[in-house]
Amino acid sequence: MSDKTYPVPAEWAAxxxxxxxxxxxxxxxxxxxxxxxxxxHGKRIHWFSPFTTVKNTSFIPGQVSIxxxxxxxxxxxxxxxxxxxxxxxxxxxxxxxxxxPSESKTITYGELAAEVNKFANVLxxxxxxxxxxxxxxxxxxxxxxxxxxxxxxxxxxxxxxFGGFSPDSLAGRISDCESRCIIxxxxxxxxxxxxxLKANVDAAIERLGGGVDHVIVVRRTGGAVNMEPIRxxxxxxxxxxxxxxxxAEHMNAEDPLFILYTSGSTGKPKGVLHTTxxxxxxxxxxxxxxxxxxxxxxxxxxxxxxWVTGHSYxxxxxxxxxxxxxxxxxxxxxxxxxxxxxxxxxxxxxxFYTAPTAxxxxxxxxxxxxxxxxxxxxxxxxxxxxxxxxxAWEWYHRVVGEGRCPIVDTWWQTETGGILITPLPGATALxxxxxxxxxxxxxxxxxxxxxxxxDGATEGNLVIADSWPGQMRTVYGxxxxxxxxxxxxxxxxxxxxxxxxxxxxxYYWITGRVDDVINVSGHRMGTAEVESALVAHPNVSExxxxxxxxxxxxxGIYAYVTLMADVQPSEELRKELVAWVRKxxxxxxSPDLIQFAPGLPxxxxxxxxxxxxxxxxxxxFENLGDTxxxxxxxxxxxxxxxxxxxx
Length: 647
Ligand code: WTA
Fold this sequence. Notes:
- With 647 residues, the protein is α/β, with parallel strands linked by helices.
- It has a domain at 521-642: GMP Synthetase, Chain A, domain 3 (2-Layer Sandwich), CATH 3.30.300.30.
- It is built from 20 helices and 31 strands.
- An eight-stranded mixed β-sheet has the order 12-11-8-6-7-14-15-24, with helices on both faces.
- A hairpin with a 7-residue loop joins strand 14 (256-262) and strand 15 (270-275).
- Helix 4 (76-88) packs across helix 11 (308-320) and helix 5 (109-125) crosses helix 6.
- The chain is globular.
- 5'-O-[(S)-ethoxy(hydroxy)phosphoryl]adenosine (WTA) is lined by residues 262, 307-309, 383-387, 409-414, 435, 496-498, 510, 512-513, 519, 524.
């Protein structure tokens, strides 16, 4: 931990929306009178019919219910597009930068309106109606944003599935929300390599044995794909037949906007459900203040639309604010490790938002690939997805930002809809590695294992004491699981699953997950999911998966595998198991290390002692804690010896 402090630069104090005193006053007002505060800020979006109630929320176990602005009527696509047309029809809404540096284009708000309306009409012609679920499995091309906004326009609920997920993972997500319509592309393109999206959709539907009526295929690479008659349609052909006008459905503030599946500590991924009004108010307000977005700024978030960061901070937040948002199809190291910085120069990017894992990977190539670009347009840097270690922070600040750009280290989750703990560039003195202070309306608390609220400088688990408008409303189709997962551990409070330290200056430092979720390169992976993929292999009898510190990914995936009695461990089998998990879940779930274990440490009641497995994976052999409750303590010695032999 570093306790170095970077004050707000003078130019920032002059230009930012808020300084330190204004932030403090506004924060106080937001927690003292949430109804009054959000009644005012709820007006930042357009309502067809205004809300008359503001906050109606309960965290009480058995009656958890979260409603904001509940009688207001609005439409998210109207807010992201139509509302801007009078003033900004010719302003660029989306800058698209292709995987190949010679491919890029701009889309104005006027063009965005026509594209989204056409897309909505194509969906409508396939009988997609308000409340229907539509699965979007797309590369990072503008049509991904059009598809999301088209759903929002019609009141259909989109479920975007990251293009790196396998047919199996995709199938699970299609069937959980029963989507009958899928939007995809022939192939994706990343780092010069093709991703067989349509073929994966076909395989997913085959696995489901049907249930999908429509597959809309956007042509991206022109690669050959199988088109099933009647079910499948090329988007460009369907779009040619429809008008570019489509009315925006009148939506209640609490009508669902989207489902996004995310990994938890147990079971299969949960469908996190976000609704319309509160989500948009929160996404747009955080985007404005955290990135201090001013008229004319060019803003770039490098996330994929398959993750919540892409939803809130590539599409909905920026477009609701009439911003210019950059969408990047490629990867940081293609064609060279200067790509990010070249894109910044090419499009004169002012605000750049990325993940620590990308910074750590690029740091390895040294300063030269950064220094040879100008980056003079940059004013602000952001970080998201995992704790940023102070070394990476300092490099980002000194090399990428030339020492002049503040870094906003934004802590939040799929469940929170938007940023909860973050600096504001004109208001907050920065400490490298700290997400600093809560955003408006957010009441963080640090609690001990029993739920006792800890005061002052302390360390424990992070909970949020009251609701904010962007909060998830339920787990799709399973409200009981919503209550159990987030409100049962510390009754009456939202449990984040993260550990946290608060220093003597009241700064928050997120220390990482305290549950069985691993954060691999900023992507959430449930250990239970990787385990169930491993045990699905015919040679595996049992598996336990934990995280371990990884220089670039933040955390890596460490799998302990017990084989069937008649199977011998081999290098070949190890490779086969890694490939197996990639195929079952997707490349992001590939185990970094597999240790064959004749036995796993278990309590006498048969529960795997993950605490011990984590320590062994971290090489903390001295620190294994109490092993006396194990059914067979000898198992641990075997594991340690094996691990040490591998080093
Ligand atoms: C972690 C991503 C430290 C955290 C927006 C959280 C962070 C999980 C930060 C959510 C940060 C996200 N500092 N940790 N600035 N941002 N995390 O749902 O563990 O993909 O619980 O949402 O990422 O990941 P998710």
